[in-house]
Design brief:
6-stranded mixed β-sheet
């Protein structure tokens, strides 16, 4: 059995099944790991306000990695262990590239996602239906997005844009990549997530591990999509879900079952709790 002391869990496509639920088996495995002295954290592209309450309310969950690593926070105190926003100049450059590319955009500022009237209404149709309750409950609508951005260019943690198809997403990706020195990932089909250069889940995870006095070998990470890749690569034990993208599957040390088959629970039971199917 490995000496794992920190487990980072992606949410969508990993901890959460396709109905956006944490199953009883997965919830129990997380609780057992915490009772065994292991820190288990959500590691997500969502903002802090988007982490499900059922995860945050598990006794012993002390930290959260959000906005793809732009924020790592101690939950009890609100203290930021990492806070990695864009520079105003780079935020302006990115905004200038994506503001008119036809997608549904959210700007993550201070732990909350802000969107416009389109993003809160018609733009929701671009997302999987199971995500609509989460989006409606966490996103803040602003009437004038350009004015909102002008007031907060120094506080932007992440841009998240959903496009109607892959071709539109790829065109926007190429435009941003050509002119902006940033981190670009995708967490679900047709989605574009943009962070400041060097800001990744992997970096945020290592910051937390160092803060806790842990080595990489004591860190396990589970994920399924492009924004999880650095986390899978940087953890001592990188676990890909069976439903993961090819690049995440190739980078992983172990492939567990899918998010609809309690893959996270099976990985925790095998590598932390010392039992397997």
């Amino acid at each position: 059995m490995s000496d794992i002391r920190l487990i980072a869990l992606d949410l969508d496509g990993t901890v959460l099944n396709d109905q956006k639920q944490i199953t009883p088996r997965t919830l129990n495995a997380i609780r057992e790991a915490i009772q065994a002295g292991v820190d288990v954290i959500p590691a997500t592209g969502r903002t802090a306000s988007g982490v499900p309450e059922e995860f945050l309310k598990i006794p012993g969950v002390r930290y959260a990695l959000t906005s793809n690593g732009a924020s790592v926070v101690e939950l009890s105190s609100g203290r930021h262990l990492a806070e990695l926003a864009f520079t105003p100049e780079m935020a302006q450059a990115v905004y200038g590239r994506v503001a008119h590319t036809g997608g549904s955009m959210a700007i993550f500022v201070d732990g909350r996602p802000y969107t416009d009237v389109y993003g809160m209404n018609e733009g929701l149709s671009l997302y999987p239906p199971a995500m609509h309750p989460y989006l409606r409950s966490t996103r803040v609508m602003v009437e004038d997005m350009p004015a909102f951005f002008r007031a907060h260019p120094h506080e932007v943690e992440k841009f998240s844009i959903m496009y109607p198809d892959t071709a539109s997403r790829d065109a926007a990706w190429q435009a941003v990549e050509k002119d902006c020195d940033v981190e670009i990932t995708s967490s679900i089909p047709n989605n574009l997530e943009i962070n400041a250069r060097g800001v990744t889940k992997g970096r945020g995870l290592l910051v937390l591990a160092e803060t806790l006095g842990l080595s990489r070998s004591q860190v396990m990470a589970c994920g399924d999509s492009g924004n999880d890749l650095t986390m899978i690569q940087n953890a001592g034990l990188g676990v890909a879900m069976a439903n993961a993208t090819p690049e995440v599957l190739a980078a992983a040390d172990f492939v567990t079952a899918s998010n609809n088959e309690d893959g996270v629970a099976k990985a925790i039971e095998r590598f932390v709790l010392g039992r397997a199917d």
